[in-house]
Amino acid sequence: MKWLQRIFNFYINSSIHVSLAVVALVFVTYSTLDILYQKEFIFFVFFASITGYNFIKYSSLAKLHHRSLTESLKAIQLFSFVCFVCMMYYARHLPYKVLFACMIFGVLTLLYALPILSRKRNLRSFYGAKMYTIAFVWAGVTVILPVLDSMQSLQMDVWISFVQRFLFIIVITLPFDIRDLNYDREDINTIPKSLGIRYAKFLGVGLLIVFFVLEFFKDKIQYGHVLTLFVIGILSALFLIGSSDKQYRYYASFFVESLPIIWWGILYLTQVLLS
To answer: What are the pLDDT digits (tens) for 30-62?
Structure first.
């Protein structure tokens, strides 16, 4: 069964799982804002997510240990290069305004990963910037970009969805920060480190309440979407409450990161049942 473990580890470590989560949130946007699916955009987001996440996770490691890279890391590097090529291929099919917005999110990713601001500091070194950068990029990629790609205007419901997505990503990032509480560098000041685990969880639950209530401020309220938000909010709260600094190895990296996929699954099932 070791080969199954290796495949699963590659699935997690190569960022395939998190990229599927990003794609799932794009599908959520398509459904909630009544946007037609764009195949080229979906593939672009998938390959771009793998490229970006693997760059963040492994660029510094590869620079320091390029002579002693493990076979699995070499495989991930090769896989990431293939995904980069695929990303560039599908980028040719996107409108210029989408590519311009992608450049903004790409710059934020670079600022997050590389010490561009000074020799030793990047966005992760500033208070809360780690979480807010991730949430802003995810919300932008999964809400704003699909709308721009479909040539629709950024109406009020779009911005409400953006804020909801921003809050949702902050909440599901908290279990990762709680997990890494004893391993983050001293200059990385996260919410659990500042407030403590207990109050970070209280904050997360409060954000989920706002996340749900915002749905009622949209011009077009659909009860299937409201039900879906309620269920995914409860599940997110349970995963947040159950997180600790000594959690199961795949608790955050697989189960918590599955929440966007579960969200899309529940939404799709709800639409089928109510249609």
So the answer is: 999 989 888 999 999 999 999 988 888 876 544
Number of C-alpha atoms within 13 angstroms, CB side, residue 255?
A: 14
Question: Would you place residue 192 in the very low, low, confident or very high pLDDT band (cuts 50, 70, 90)?
Answer: confident
Give the span between the Cα atoms of 145 and 201, in whole angstroms.
30
Higher-confidence residue: 114 or 200?
Answer: 200
Q: What is the CA radius of gyration of the chain?
A: 19
Q: Report how far residue 79's alpha carbon sits from residue 199's, in angstroms, rounded to the nearest whole number.
A: 40
For residue 226, give the amino acid letter.
Answer: V
Measured distance CA(176)–CA(251) in Å, rounded: 9
Domain that holds residue 193: 2-274
Polymer length in residues for the chain = 275
- Per the structure, how many domains does the chain have? 1
